[in-house]
Amino acid sequence: MSDENNIKRINPRRAYKIMADGVKRIVLGSISDFVAHEATSHHGTNKPVRTPSAPKARVLVIAHSDRGMLDDHARQALAAAAILADANTAVVVLVLGELREDLSNAGADEVLVIAELDYQTFQPDVEVSCAKTIIASIVPKHIFMPDNLIGDGDLGRRLIACYPEKSAATHVIELNNVQVANYQLGGTSLALTSLPYIVLLAADTTDSRLAFSAAAQKLDSTFANQNTAKSQKSNYTNLGMQTISAANIALEEADFIVSAGNGVDNVTTLQALAASLDAAIGASRVAVDDGKFTRDKQIGATGKTVTASTYLAIGISGAVQHLQGIKDCRHVIAINRDNSAPIIKRADLSVIGDAESIMQELITAIAQVKSSAQEAA
Ligand SMILES: Cc1cc2nc3c(=O)[nH]c(=O)nc-3n(C[C@H](O)[C@H](O)[C@H](O)COP(=O)(O)OP(=O)(O)OC[C@H]3O[C@@H](n4cnc5c(N)ncnc54)[C@H](O)[C@@H]3O)c2cc1C
After folding, report:
1. Between 150 and 141, where is the model more confident?
2. What pLDDT was estimated at residue 120?
3. With a 6 A CB cut-off, is 322 part of the ligand 1 pocket?
4. What is d(CA 62, CA 85) in angstroms, rounded to the nearest whole number?
5. What are the tens digits of pLDDT across the range 288-301?
6. Whole-prediction pTM value?
7. Which CATH number fits domain 244-376: 3.40.50.1220, 3.40.640.10, 3.40.50.2300, 3.10.310.10?
8. Under a CB-based contact definition with an 8 Å cutoff, are residues 151 and 123 in contact?
């Protein structure tokens, strides 16, 4: 986005202070007496650090990044590896795609990044070849990967096919350092096998919030570069990604959701805002019960569980049943006129004010940004 427009932006990750009422407050101006969030939580200074001294073995975690970060499913695979690793085992994570975050709190002892192998650039043969080179060099005891749809599930199965002499399990829902379990017979039985060489983990198998942190030491980039896609040609011709309009995808798959609660009176304004952001529409149970939205839009304990990277909650109080449905959303932004509403504590950024007027202002601002982008093009 261009910096030439006049929209004032606040970095939601900037230093903040937790107020007496539990609300996170970002303050412009002097930040000297405010807690540096990045310094304490990302680097895990408050947690014990797991440091395998002179590791005798390694386990490898492979995952694609999504816009410079590992998503929660990938972090769960990393957490599983870190929890199962003994004092002599180092956890190496191979990140395919750009990485712009620190993985010490995610449990990585060593980090290898191959930025060129972004999941948007479909080149599975090159990914397999790079992964095999790294596997041959690291000789991991086990390989852990998230069994997802953004490339890791696919790559994991290709790797399984490359090592027919090794054991593997997909869709693993439970594991410990002896065995893994996955559903069989249409989900009516659990199949138990000994911990295999390649483990593809289903989502929510492990809690990604670890009680310890790790060194997250970046391995020599030349090591990664030796194996990169730069020198290898894929047999696939990548024709690029086509974005499906938010209106045509299931709420569970949506990356950006604009969601309405009882505080939204004008559904037309909300629909216009969602359309201008190309976001899917969700709603609280009260808004659905009120007849403003159809039942399939309901998010929460008795509705849908969503995993959007941005969830814009407008006029939603944040009752526990609603919060249950958005627990896996990466960034929550709340618009509410009550700064003591529970959603404010869950939100990464809150705008306190009237829903209708803020929505109108947002629609105007987005239109301005779009038109200046068009003029500049
Ligand atoms: C068994 C059970 C299951 C449930 N399942 C679900 C579920 O799946 N999903 C779900 O959502 N709920 C569920 N609920 C209901 C839940 O407990 C809450 O009642 C509901 O989520 C509240 O919806 P709301 O936040 O939209 O409405 P309210 O609680 O009425 O909150 C409205 C919010 O909008 C704000 N507001 C009002 N006017 C404005 C304005 N003009 N501008 C800005 N802000 C404004 C208010 O400050 C308030 O925070 C369930 C309840 C039970 C008992």
Report:
1. 141
2. 86
3. yes
4. 16
5. 999 999 999 999 99
6. 0.67
7. 3.40.50.1220
8. no
